[in-house]
Amino acid sequence: MDFKIKCHLGYECSGPASFLFNVAVARNSFQRVITEHFEVEGAGFCQETLIGGQRYHRVIVQSGRVELIYEAVVDATHELLGDPSRLQAPLFEQIPSEAMVFIYPSRFCQSDLLARLAKREFNQDEAGFYRVTRICNWIFERVEYLFGTTTPTTSAFDTATQLAGVCRDFAHLGIAFCRSLGIPARFVSAYAYGLNPPDFHAYIEAFLGGRWILFDPTRLAPQASFVRIGQGRDAADTSFATIFGGAVMNKMELSMQPSPGQRNSPQYTIAPISNYPSVSKPEKHSGSEAKQ
What we know:
Elements: E1 2-21, E2 31-41, E3 45-51, E4 54-61, E5 64-76, E6 79-80, H1 115-121, H2 128-142, E7 144-145, H3 156-162, E8 164-165, H4 167-180, E9 185-191, E10 201-208, E11 211-215, E12 227-232, E13 241-258, E14 278-279
Parallel strand pairs: 7-8
Antiparallel strand pairs: 1-4, 1-5, 1-13, 2-5, 3-4, 6-14, 9-10, 9-12, 10-11, 11-14
Helix pairs in contact: 1-4, 2-4, 3-4
């Protein structure tokens, strides 16, 4: 399905400032960029660069107002797998080297501190897909989605204690639980259709059955609408703007809509347990192919 994406960010700089923006959609075989426009007003320098396979834009501003305008039309595709029971959690020796980093605790996903809770709450005899689904259901049912209750430094341990947060916090907690049980899991930033208010979205991917499988404990948007920006160990690796210097955000406008002329809009998942897992796999693992 084709989507029109718009991102408009504005900042006021009190002096020299450097920005590292991560808002451009990922280019891979599972989401095709049809058209794209990236513009920064008020900058003296702007350069696109790849870091860890992700697209970033380095921007340098002397002072004053700076505005980023990003627009894209993207064709996003997904693959549905019909038999979730085949998506087993990998044995340690089956985890590929590039996925090993996603079993360690990280800054916002303290899986070591949550290991006792995870092992008590989630049945380790279940197939990997059902165990991760149970994790997402637990978070959806017990953690209140509530704006203004967390900060950029809130961690998975904080969310498990406060039982409130936003998509970033839901993702961190899901990732921490997965890693506590030996399942590699990573944080994904994305555009998503239907968010109210519009915002950047965060979901998780768990490495099951030799591939990365999509999970979203918030259930705020249809998974078929997810358009990947980047992925990492947690939100620290995927911030939409990293700023060095004095700058204050004064504008953030996001929108995502199906392109005109399409018959249907993305459908929401209503059932508490998805009948068909969605696959997201921008890299190849064990020779298997999948689509975001």
